[in-house]
Design goal:
Elements (H helix, E strand, L loop, with lengths): L2 H31 L2 E3 L5 E3 L3 H13 L33 H7 L1 H18 L4 H7 L2 H12 L7 H23 L11 H29 L6 H25 L12 H9 L2 H27 L2 H24 L14 H18 L11 H38 L1
Antiparallel strand pairs: 1-2
Helix pairs in contact: 1-11, 1-12, 2-4, 2-9, 2-11, 4-8, 4-9, 5-12, 6-7, 6-8, 7-8, 7-13, 12-13
């Protein structure tokens, strides 16, 4: 196998790895919540432990620290470059100590956003939860206008409006779906709280991107380093919050109180939970490292496509898990409101593609890119017209020569 074939195979393995890991991470997270085990008091209950899942997620991210390498000066460019073709800058490598300190603020935002999202997943299906994470588009656009004072092009506004419509449809389908306590389903009130939590989580994540742009813009470091340090700080901060949550009033599963000792006792009594937990840690690590590689060689269109089909793949996987066994309490049931949810998915994905310019609508203006395209079209038309005129003149001269002869 030649070098070119090996590179092509490596890229395909990265693409497949990221696609699988992005789906399995959410599926494992939801299945952990739906699994019962004997706890510290001897009773069986659901493993509804959002802080524990947050902790294991950051643990998986922290493994990226083992992939830290010193970036070359000539390769350096801003970590969060908005343009894939941005001119490479010449900067010396940033000391690891400075990087670790600067990453603390974004890691804190990541901790809050991921906890809110993890708590929301207790009460929402995996597919709906993933779809509502698209609210980050709405908040990103809002912060771009209010905080950065940017003027958004019309196609982005149009995309945001379509996303809002799609999410409203998904929300209605989610709240109208019947409650099924045998499947660990939540009440309408708890599902509404779940939607609110995941939405707030995406708002925090949108703020995180601003912190990262301000703090890490001039950093010369590999993506492995950034992800690894965020994982390290998140892992350490989670320990502090898990101790605080242990002493808060309430019961496990309400997002406030969480008995971490009970978490480990439940793991001890359930081999299934142990398997789910270690699989979750592994796929979080795989998702992050493949994400680092795929950014370097794939287009934005391709990455948007992966994120777009992710809710569908999660939905299909959870449906398969549920219906693979007659008495299964895991996965997700199909309801009559599933058709409306499917419509909402399609509308939301369409809005996402419009926002990201993956789909271009003829009645919207796309700035300099469209001007360039229009100029190319005009040039081609003029070229064809000139060729047509030249051909007509040649034919006319040929006819005149024949008449003279």
């Amino acid at each position: 196998m030649g070098k070119r074939e090996s590179t092509k195979l490596f890229k395909w393995l990265i693409i497949i790895g990221m696609s699988i890991a992005s789906v399995v991470s959410v599926v494992m997270s939801k299945l952990m919540y739906q699994t019962k085990s004997k706890g510290i008091h001897g009773d069986k209950h659901y493993f509804e432990k959002p802080w524990f899942q947050d902790w294991t997620m950051f643990f998986g991210m922290s493994f990226c620290l083992f992939g830290i390498r010193k970036p070359k000066t000539q390769e350096s460019k801003p970590i969060l470059a908005s343009d894939e073709k941005e001119i490479v800058e010449s900067k010396p490598p940033t000391p690891l100590k400075r990087i670790s300190i600067l990453v603390m603020a974004p890691a804190t935002c990541d901790l809050i956003a991921s906890f809110l999202s993890n708590a929301a997943l207790i009460w929402l299906s995996g597919s709906v939860w993933q779809m509502f994470r698209n609210t980050v588009i709405i908040f990103t656009a809002f912060l771009a206008v209010v905080y950065r004072k940017h003027k958004l092009p019309k196609y982005e506004w149009f995309g945001v409006i379509i996303v809002v419509i799609g999410l409203v449809i998904v929300g209605v389908a989610t709240l109208k779906a019947p409650e099924d306590t045998s499947n660990g389903s939540s009440s309408v009130t708890l599902r509404a709280i779940g939607i609110l939590l995941v939405t707030i989580g995406q708002l925090v994540w949108a703020f995180q991107t601003i912190f990262e742009e301000q703090l890490l813009h001039d950093i010369n470091a590999t993506e492995w380093t950034i992800v690894g340090f965020e994982g390290m700080w998140g892992f350490l901060f989670c320990i502090v919050f898990m101790i605080i949550a242990y002493f808060l009033p309430g019961k496990d599963g309400n997002g406030l109180h969480e008995n971490t000792l009970d978490s480990f006792v439940m793991l001890y009594h359930s081999g299934v939970l142990i398997a789910f937990t270690f699989t979750y840690i592994a796929v979080v690590f795989v998702y992050n490292i493949t994400g680092v590689y795929i950014t370097s060689f794939s287009s934005a269109l391709f990455r948007n496509l992966i994120e777009a089909i992710r809710p569908f793949l999660i939905w299909i996987t959870l449906l398969t898990v549920h219906y693979s066994s007659p008495d299964s309490e895991l996965g997700e049931k199909w309801t009559t409101w599933g058709w409306l949810e499917l419509v909402g998915f399609i509308v939301t994905i369409f809005g996402t593609f419009v926002y990201n310019k993956s789909i271009k609508l003829p009645f919207l203006f796309y700035g300099n890119e469209q001007i360039k395209s229009n100029n190319q079209q005009k040039h081609q038309i003029l070229k064809e017209e000139n060729l047509s005129d030249d051909l007509e003149d040649n034919n006319k001269n040929k006819e005149e020569n024949e008449d003279n002869n």
